[in-house]
Amino acid sequence: MRIFAATLATETNTFAVVPTGRADFEVYGVYRGDASRKAADGFCGAQLGQLQRLAAADGHEVIESLAAFAQPAGPTLQNVYEEFRAQILEDLRAALPVDAVQLYLHGAMVAEGYDDCEGDLIRHVREIVGAGVHIGAELDLHCHFTERMRINADAIICFKEYPHTDILDRARELYRIAVDHVGSNIKPVTAVHDPRMVGLWPTTSEPMRSFVQRMKDLEGRDGVLSVSLGHGFPMGDVADSGARFWVITDGDAAKAEALARQLGQEFWDMREACSTPRGSVAQALDRANRSTRHPVVLADTGDNAGGGAMGDSTFVLRALLDAGIGNAALALYWDLGAVHLCRSAGVGATLDLRVGGKCGPLSGDPVDLRVVVRAIRENHTQAGLGSLHPLGTVVRVEAANGIDLLLCTIRSQVFVPELFTDLGIELTKKQIVVVKSNQHFHQGFAPIAAEIVYLPTPGSSSTDFANMPYRVRSLNYWPRVEDPFAVEAGRN
Ligand SMILES: [Zn+2]
Fold it and tell me: How far apart are CA 111 and CA 238, in angstroms?
């Protein structure tokens, strides 16, 4: 069996001010045919590497094409997407005949002129391989599942876990379905259900924890091949943005449809229990400051680089200073100019530094601080989700009152406590630790946190879902509307 495979992934925040260009992909490496060997520990090559191992064990051949990943930001430039697509399709034509295609995509990639890059790519692949060749795709759970994807692919599976700890598990399932389909042991059919919901749903706490288990328990029995909940990506303003259930069965479309609808109803019934209470940032800081246990870990959810925000917003820093709260560590601020100044000054230098607030109104105002440069790390990296993430130069500066900040030159959310400890910050001695991230920090920080609090901060990854400034997506969704189904039925 000959399997053609490619990786193309970025998550597009259509509210972000900075577009995604070729250089943003090159930060993570752009590979063509060799990512499994050269980038096995990164987002570009992990799934391809596993595919090579699985296929080799089964006596199958893998033909690898493009592998490219970019940190989430604004829409990808049209020529960049079209160039990547052209490379994949050219490699595919050269590889024919193939028995199966495996695509590792994101599912929420938007380019100028393309609201559904993944659906577009899968459709082009289908045109080349024809109806008889298996096409499978793995998506991030923060995807926009579209009808174009469904009708052009044979099997699409998204991650179940948020944080995404199951990327390779799901890729393995995708491979098994491909092998079974090509071997004529199964005939996958997919049905989808739209619960009319927008949100972010961490799977680390109940009731989501048990719901993930319930989806897994349904698989592998009674002809159910795979169950996916695409959470949607709320910061992507496209027509298909929002949660979707889809179920793949062995040839039973009615069963797939009924199960997708049933799970959608169960998810709808859990909606209040799954939503995070929204207080004010000032209240949360005050409570964290008075906590008798520490460190209290606060997630700056509105400025999550992993969700396409710029990572330079100052709302939390400003609030800490205004409240006179000290003994805190905050990361990561993407601020090229500030890093440059600190680097020039050197470790031990004291200087007046203007931090953050550079990328636009959603970043807040810059904050002026007198700081001491405590540490500098060049070409620094951070582990997270089974991959290594480049950070460029990372600088630790200390301001008055025991406030430590980490600045970087390559945008990234915070994944692990080592980010702080590597630069000499003892988190166990800090009262407050602020991480610019929405959920991927959770796995690393839960063991050391006295408490974890999700701050309802403003920004281009704001989690104020009821008030998202959508212009393309329908506004008939929960939690903006209490009962979107009633609105559609004309009962409201
Ligand atoms: Zn995701």
Answer: 11
168 pLDDT band, cuts 50/70/90, is: very high
User: Per-residue confidence at 2, pLDDT binned at 50, 70, 90?
Assistant: very high
Q: How far is the CA of 413 from the centre of ligand 1 (A)?
A: 12
Helix, strand and coil percent figures for the chain, each rounded to 5: 35, 25, 40
Ligand 1 center–CA 141 separation, angstroms = 6
**Ligand 1 centroid distance, CA of 466 (Å):** 20
If you measure from the C-alpha of residue 164 to the centroid of ligand 1, how many angstroms do you get, rounded to a whole number?
7
Phi, psi of 68 (to 5 degrees): -145, 135
Q: Is 360 exposed, middle or buried (0-12, 13-18, 19+ CB in 10 A)?
A: middle
**Which of 311, 309, 323, 302 lies closest to 355, judged by CA?**
311
| pLDDT value of position 27 | 94
pLDDT for the residue numbered 491 = 72
Q: Tell me, what's the pLDDT at 492?
A: 60
* Average pLDDT of the segment spanning 227-245: 98
432 Cα–ligand 1 center, Å: 26
Cβ–Cβ < 8 Å for 77, 109: no
Question: Are the CB atoms for 260 and 192 separated by under 8 Å?
Answer: yes
d(CA 357, CA 169): 39
Q: What percent of the chain has pLDDT over 90?
A: 95
Domain coordinates of the chain in residue numbers? 2-273, 281-462
CA of 203 to the centre of ligand 1 (A): 12
Q: Write down the pLDDT at residue 17.
A: 84
* H or E segment to which residue 319 belongs: helix 315-323
